[in-house]
Amino acid sequence: MPRKRRLSASRNVLQDLVAANRILYRHGVLDAYGHVSVRSDGAADHFVMSRSLAPPLVTLADLVEHGPDSEPVADTRRPYLERFIHGEIYRQRPDVMAVVHSHSDSVIPFGITKGALQPVYHMASFLGAGVPVFEIRDTVVDNDLLVRDTRLGAALARRLGACACVLMRGHGMTVVGDSLPEAVFRAVYTERNAKLQAMAQQLEGPIRFLSAEEAVRATRSNRSTLERPWELWKKAALRRG
User: Fold this and answer.
1) CA quadruple 143, 148, 150, 153: dihedral positive or negative?
2) Cα–Cα distance for residue pair 184/99, rounded to 1 Å
3) Which of 29, 111, 161, 188 is most exposed, with minimal Cβ within 10 Å?
4) Which of 190, 128, 198, 134 is CA-nearest to residue 163?
5) pLDDT, tens digit, for every residue of 172-185?
6) pLDDT tens digits for range 62-117
7) Does 11-232 carry CATH code 1.10.357.10?
8) Neighbours of 65 (CB within 10 A)
9) Catalytic center residues
10) CA torsion angle for 96, 100, 106, 109 (degrees, to 10)?
């Protein structure tokens, strides 16, 4: 039997983490793969995410606390292989409270071509801070594209820098927020922006992206209304039947 330990995060945070897994699945950001985590509000150097499990199946019983080394704390269940993405971002970015990693289809082309992902509408204004691309070969030449240790996790976190989103060549994206609702919001709208940008590129250009000032102002406005989509998405994700 796996060892059981009381998690340091509050019940509200844990319930929101379960909801986040299901929300991201419903919006096509996660499928059987990918994961979301939240920094513990009871131990700032710890974070919580599910054991290795498909996101829509996650329940409170599946949540596992991880320490500063990205290893499970007193829990013998199998963790996600790429938990180091989360742990190293939390280590380098004390402002980050939640992390989403996905293989979202629409963002993949922007990580393997010269086309930069940029905000085409106000809901993805946070992308105006920049969307760097992580090239894993710069750290490990012979690899399987998975961030499977602290070295690769630290390299990804450095590439993310102060931005909200980093693309991963041939892999997907990682998005961060200063709350779980914000990280979920950003993951959903990064996926949607990528779809819209790809559509716009098929039309007569050039594309009129958001200006730097528009991006800053829109991000500020969106942050003041995060509870609106979060309440809607959470209710729908947790509805029985």
Assistant:
1) positive
2) 8
3) 161
4) 128
5) 999 999 999 999 99
6) 999 999 999 999 999 999 999 999 999 999 999 999 999 999 999 999 999 999 99
7) no
8) 21
9) 82
10) 70
